[in-house]
Amino acid sequence: MKIDPQLIQTLLKLPDEQLWATVRAVAATKKINLSETPPPKQTMAALRAAFSEADKYDYASAVKILSDYRTKGK
Fold it and tell me: 12 in the Ramachandran plot: left (φ > 0), alpha (ψ -120 to 50) or beta?
């Protein structure tokens, strides 16, 4: 899958609620169910940080953040 760095930067500028809706939609395509309610600001900040550098996407970190949120609700 080819990643468009400009698209990622645009998504990261969305408000938490809209970004979370996008994350949920993408996760759903992989049969991953996430809460409708956005996670706390700290979790959203960590998720944004995982994708913040256009030249070094850290998917492993993003997956770990989402997994931790799903299992611990943090």
Answer: alpha
